[in-house]
Write a structure and sequence with these properties.
single chain; about 500 residues; five-stranded mixed sheet; four-stranded antiparallel sheet; 13 helices; glycoprotein; iduronate-2-sulfatase activity; hydrolase; disulfide bond
Length: about 500
């Protein structure tokens, strides 16, 4: 059995015993694989096909990979073809054109994907303002009983997931259940009681609220999506760099963390249901996200960049009998863990979301995925990631400082524009390729042709180099000041993903 829990926007540092007890409990029973990377919204397709965006050719929300690039087999489709009953609840694939308006049914799912009825109100005026009227706000803590149907999307999704687990438990056949929670994505339409966990007088601002030194303008994310919300519009913040008032920054951070705690409660319901149904010892659980979210770091909000705070996501994998012992008869696998006496179990290696597909397939006994050839548009089933199964069986939890993770993000111009966050494919003029290991993050912004999907390796629009030991927040761009040619060549030699790195080496060597 496999339970995939996917959230929209990462948890930042909010995974804690006190305010995220259920995710923390899952983490305490599993290795937390740190430094996994995402490619923003198209990362859902990338993760579920184990192909990078340059292979899916999905850089916006307006194309379906099976038509646009190749008829690639997905993670749930692979399980379905091996006899698993596959189910989707909530936001798993990105809805709309990107998944053929069907969440890739019937290819990936045994039954049509479930979407909560109340999500249709998510972008409507549902937030009661100080004037007593309803608004389409960023900050939207609500009385759930006053919402349409007396519920919210993630509450509905959890109810449906619990219902499906009960049905599958009585059936006994192998199943793959993917549950996608919408929070902590904006707007922060969440139960108002969760705000009490984070008093405003206890909240702090981002430690690095300024735009990094010598950041190329093409790299900056002007957080247009946030600016569109009514409560943010009232602030009359200048475009593109104008800072949000500090008191409102604190409220954003408060609502974000409250949204994490709200999501955590839904995860707890799922884990408790596994225990109650006796499924824990036979169910692999994977918890992850599609991208991160800036909370004022680098003067940015939301996603849409190549910084760690946006590309780094949680990846927590529970494998009964491997990452944790099988539960004793009558005992719960997920009891409360006293973190003051329980050491955290962490594998400090760099991984990517494209690694999930080959890893879970291997660990559940499915046929192993072959590595994709350099050009794989005609290959239905292969992986551009790495099989991490051996990692979970290693007694030594050492670090490999040279493993690389890649991310990328498109831009319509060299300077921030209204569509810099979400450019349509036809408007993309620059592609920012970023690679990161435990010591460095290196990003180069290259000219891109949206008609041919070709990158011009000689057309460099900007670069970033951050030395993470001295600059973990990636605030001091030393691109051009450092002998980074030898550094990047070293990375190219020691990574299997030589095609991506070779492009970057070529750029900085000429």
């Amino acid at each position: 059995m496999l339970l995939l829990i996917k959230i929209d926007c990462k948890l930042q540092a909010a995974i804690s015993c006190r305010f995220s007890p259920n995710v923390f409990l899952l983490k305490s029973r599993t290795p937390k694989i740190s430094n996994s990377q995402a490619v923003c919204a198209p990362s859902r397709t990338s993760m579920l096909t184990s192909r990078r965006p340059d292979t899916t050719r999905l850089y916006d929300f307006n194309s379906y990979w099976r038509v646009h690039s190749g008829n690639y087999t997905t993670l749930p489709q692979h399980f379905k073809s091996e006899g698993y009953y596959t189910m989707s609840v909530g936001k798993v694939f990105h809805p709309g054109i990107a998944s053929n308006h069907t969440d890739d049914y019937p290819y990936s799912w045994s039954i049509p994907a479930y979407h909560p009825f109340s999500f249709r109100f998510e972008k409507q005026k549902m937030c009661k303002g100080e004037d007593g009227r309803l608004h389409a706000n960023l900050l939207c803590a609500v009385n759930v009983t006053e919402q349409p149907g007396g519920t919210l999307p993630d509450l509905e999704s959890t109810d449906e997931a619990v219902r499906l687990l009960k049905i599958r438990a009585s059936d006994g056949a192998p199943f793959f259940l993917a549950v996608g929670f919408h929070k902590p994505h904006i707007p922060f339409r969440i139960p108002q009681e969760y705000l009490s966990l984070y008093p405003l007088d206890k909240m702090t601002l981002a430690p690095d609220p300024d735009v990094p030194q010598r950041l190329p303008p093409v790299a900056y994310n002007p957080w247009t999506d946030v600016r569109k919300r009514e409560d943010v519009q009232k602030l009359n913040v200048s475009f593109p760099y104008g800072p949000i008032p500090k008191d409102f920054q604190l409220r954003i951070r408060q609502h974000y963390y409250a949204a994490v705690s709200y999501m955590d409660a839904q995860v707890g319901r799922l884990l408790s249901t596994l225990d109650a149904l006796g499924l824990t010892d036979s169910t692999m659980v994977v918890f992850t996200s599609d991208h991160g979210w800036s909370l004022g770091e680098h003067g940015e909000w939301a996603k849409y960049s190549n910084f760690d705070v946006v590309t780094r996501v949680p990846l927590i994998v529970f494998v009964p009998g491997v990452t944790a012992s099988h539960s004793s008869p009558g005992a719960s696998t997920f009891p409360f863990i006293d973190v003051l006496t329980q050491p955290e179990y962490i594998i400090q290696n760099t991984v990517e979301l494209v690694d999930i597909f080959p890893t879970v397939a291997n660990m559940t006994g499915l046929p192993a995925l072959k590595e994709c050839p350099e050009v794989s548009f005609q290959v239905e089933l292969c992986t551009e990631g790495r099989n991490l199964a051996q990692t979970f069986h290693q007694k030594e939890r050492g670090r490999n400082p040279d493993i690389l993770a890649f991310s990328q993000y498109p831009r319509p111009s060299d300077t921030p524009q209204n569509n810099s966050d979400l450019p349509d494919l036809r408007d993309i003029k620059v592609m920012g390729y970023s690679m990161r290991n435990r010591a460095y993050r290196y990003t180069v912004w290259l000219g891109f042709n949206p008609r041919t999907f070709q990158v011009n390796l000689t057309d460099v629009h900007g670069g970033e180099l951050y030395m993470l030991e001295d600059d973990p927040g990636q605030d001091k761009n030393i691109y051009g000041d450092h002998d980074h040619i030898m550094l990047t060549k070293k990375m190219a030699i020691e990574t299997p993903l030589k095609l991506h790195v070779t492009k970057l080496v070529h750029v900085i060597s000429h």
